[in-house]
Amino acid sequence: MTSRVLEVAGLTAVLKTAEGEMRPVNDVSFHVDRGEILGLVGESGCGKSMTALSLIGQIDAPLASLSGRVVLNGQDLMLLSSHARRKLCGDRLAMVFQDPMSSLNPVLTIQTQLVETVLAHRHVSRARAKARALEVLQTVGIADAKKRLDAYPHEFSGGMRQRVAIAIALLNQPELIVCDEPTTALDVSIQGQILAEMQRLCSETGTALIWITHDLSLVAGLADRVAVMYAGQIVETGTTLEVLEAPRHRYTEGLIASTPAKFLGASRSRGARLQPIAGAPPSLARLPSGCPFHPRCAHAVARCQQPLEETREASGRTFRCINPGPGANP
Fold it and tell me: The whole model's pTM is what?
């Protein structure tokens, strides 16, 4: 097995709406290696969740069209039938959503939901499936896991339900897990426990993880690499340290400037006044020409309104910016 688990190239989702066609995922390219955690960050509405749904093939075909390449360990998922792609979900590819109550069946016990997930993808006995269910509940830190198997989702706290959702994702030892802001509604202590657990699992099992969030401070302590998204495009990628300490794209620079330094370990002085990004994200149905960020950017020049090519550095960093920040190479 190669170290490259996922390779996404030119992924584009076109939606038909009353306002016309829009591209919430527009020529998106990135990769994730074995055991690596990639943080996908950006403001609400920038296309993060749509990217996740595009990866797992959960966009309704009558309303949207997908193009590009999504290669999971050498297999291009875009070439599979919808039936074959659905069979991958919960097996080689898993997703954890933001609200566990929307992904857990309220009228089935936790044991039933875990066991049926195993049996849907593995030819094993029900006893073996139950043993695996117990194993993953213990792995994600559910106390008295054997007793809790017979409980229903409403008998768990929010943090425990999210652990169950993560346990379901881990059941069949997937090659890739996509987490769409799964800890946003949880208190800080529970969030910290789950993040530490996910880091440990990725390190020990080699599972690759994409963690979608708008919280840069969370990414700073969790991710190995970061991909910054704006208006449906990936505008910058790099290691977490590179992106947070020396941002190339002006949008990334703005995100960091609007986050308290003590949460990022940033080099700027603590206690400095936050600098919010001016304006609001553009409508995906009416994107400005060139760089979609230029109407909000204090450093925009005339060339920013022209089509942009992605810049790739020798280190593997990428960014889409004609007038990059001071961290960029001259």
Answer: 0.90
* Residues 82 and 123 sit within 8 Å (Cβ to Cβ): no
pLDDT tens for 74-121 read 999 999 888 888 888 888 999 998 877 778 999 999 999 999 999 989
**How is the chain split into domains, by residue range?**
4-92+172-319, 93-171
Task: With CA atoms as reference, report the closest residue to 162 among 145, 134, 140.
Answer: 140
> Residue 77 has what DSSP assignment?
G
What is Dmax (Cα atoms) for the chain?
Answer: 66
Task: Read off the tokens for 294.
Answer: 């230029």
Q: Which fold has domain 4-92+172-319?
A: Rossmann fold (3.40.50)
Question: Over the stretch 41-68, which tens digit does the pLDDT of each residue have?
Answer: 999 889 999 999 999 888 766 678 889 9
* Encoded tokens for 92: 């080689």
Q: Phi and psi (nearest 5°) for 70?
A: -130, 95
What distance in Å separates the CA atoms of residue 164 and residue 90, rounded to the nearest whole number?
A: 14
